[in-house]
């Protein structure tokens, strides 16, 4: 048994993404006195569809803040806190947050809103679409304790989207050293972009070398492959496949969520 049972309520957990639309400061934000209200309306609609569809937990992220920053502006965190605050009465399942891509600000948001977990790039140095991407996990973990967020579970994304380690390191070495040095609550293994399938061979390599650590399939888990992915991983983070037509830019389709979760629940019962 892992912490998933205590925090989320089940093993083989499905964490659904609630993607937030562009907010003030984002290139895609539309100016207007009512537009933040529209962002909140969109988030509420997706949240309710995910919950009614039966997901185990939800994670709020500024997914449409493209292109992403690695030092996120304060206005983004403030907007996300407002959105979650306005949705708090609607949130009926455990939730987490992800401020793309800023680990400290993700923890700040978690502390402010009561989130149970965060997903971030905590370790490594990368060549990425956003330039040279550096991290300082020692500072980040100390910041976590400084702000009283030590109970927040940390999901380490060890294969970040749109990025590659600067050093030539195999995935087994990365997984083993990340666990030894940093004691993550979970490792997340991703494909190239949101919606891109996580390579099952890589997923298995990671799980085999860190069998006592929770491992998530982080992208590209779909109705067609969920049983295969969950036969290896301890859980899945799911976003794009829950949307109408499986299209990244669309709203969540409650019926797609329900069909997916029915399959997951059957797998959990019958394995």
Task: Based on Cα principal axes, name the global outline.
Answer: globular
Structural class: alpha/beta
Number of H/I helices: 9
Strand order of the largest sheet: 1-2-3-4-7-9-10-11
**What is the share of helical residues?**
25-40%
Alpha carbon gyration radius? 17 Å
Tell me what the structure shows.
- The protein has nine helices and eleven strands.
- The chain is an alpha/beta fold and 271 residues long.
- An eight-stranded parallel beta barrel has the order 1-2-3-4-7-9-10-11.
- Helix 2 crosses helix 3, helix 2 runs parallel beside helix 9 and helix 6 crosses helix 7.
- The mean pLDDT is 95.
Kindly list the characteristics that best describe this protein:
271 residues; alpha/beta; eight-stranded parallel beta barrel; three-stranded antiparallel sheet; 9 helices
Q: Secondary-structure map with pairings?
A:
Layout: H1 3-7, E1 13-19, H2 35-53, E2 57-61, H3 74-87, E3 95-98, H4 103-113, E4 117-120, E5 126-128, E6 131-133, H5 137-146, E7 153-157, E8 163-165, H6 171-182, E9 186-189, H7 200-209, E10 214-217, H8 226-230, E11 235-238, H9 254-270
Parallel strand pairs: 1-2, 1-11, 2-3, 3-4, 4-7, 7-9, 9-10, 10-11
Antiparallel strand pairs: 5-6, 5-8
Helix pairs in contact: 2-3, 2-9, 3-4, 6-7
In short:
The chain is an alpha/beta fold and 271 residues long.
